[in-house]
Write a structure and sequence with these properties.
60s Ribosomal Protein L30, Chain: A, 7 helices, 6 strands, globular
């Protein structure tokens, strides 16, 4: 792990004992390339990631799935997969937000704080689809960072720890041509957050001047 993680306040019994990128590789999650993911914030309406100097990192939501949800079992399976796909997008986004300037990477994530799953259930949301669909998003974070519902858990315990489990709300009642839009808040070491903010600001994608600065540092 990095110096930032090693010097964190995480109790020894709750520290990860694996490299996050090994799990990402085993799970087949694509991270893409620097040029694909590290782009300019010019003309953007919102930021994808905002770093706070306390170490909290806020990720904007992204949609998953292509159908609205109801109580049909196959629809819920579709939504679950869409939610998992959305988790993959945000994990990739977080990777580049942490690593593009060389300050850190996903192994610096201390724990996952709070997720919100907004599930598309037209007609007032009179279904029970919200939580089981959002599980696709939550359980992917368990698998990558450690958690009781991880793909690596046995008898409800992931020997790699608990950094992926989080507080969560899952609600329905929205209209849309997709299944779910989840968002998430995570925690990294405050020293890392401050290093990132000091070097290239608190936003990702990067403001144009910061993007040029980061690109120049890689030449």
């Amino acid at each position: 792990m990095s110096r930032y993680y090693d010097e964190s306040l995480i109790p020894d019994d709750m520290r990860r004992n694996f490299n996050v990128y090994d799990r990402i590789s085993e799970l087949g999650l694509p991270l893409g390339t620097f040029d694909e993911n590290v782009v300019s914030l010019a003309n953007a309406g919102i930021a994808g990631v905002v770093f706070q100097e306390s170490g909290l990192v806020y990720l904007s939501g992204t949609s998953g799935g292509t159908y609205p949800m109801n109580d049909d079992e196959e629809r819920i399976k579709h939504g679950f997969q869409g939610a998992q796909d959305a988790a993959d997008v945000l994990i990739r986004r977080l990777h580049w937000a942490l690593s593009c300037g060389g300050e850190g990477d996903l192994n610096d994530l201390l724990y996952t704080v709070k997720a919100l799953g907004m599930v598309v259930t037209p007609g007032g949301g009179a279904t029970s689809a919200g939580p089981p669909v959002t599980n696709g998003f939550s359980f992917r974070w368990h698998s990558v960072f450690g958690g009781p519902r991880s793909a690596y858990a046995e008898n409800g315990v992931d020997s790699g720890g608990f950094a992926g489990i989080h507080a969560r709300s899952a609600i329905g009642g929205f209209d849309g041509r997709f299944s779910i839009e989840p968002e998430i808040i995570v925690a990294i070491p405050p020293a890392l957050a401050q290093d990132i903010i000091r070097k290239r600001g608190w936003l990702f994608p990067l403001p144009p001047a910061m993007l040029e600065k980061v690109k120049a540092s890689k030449d």
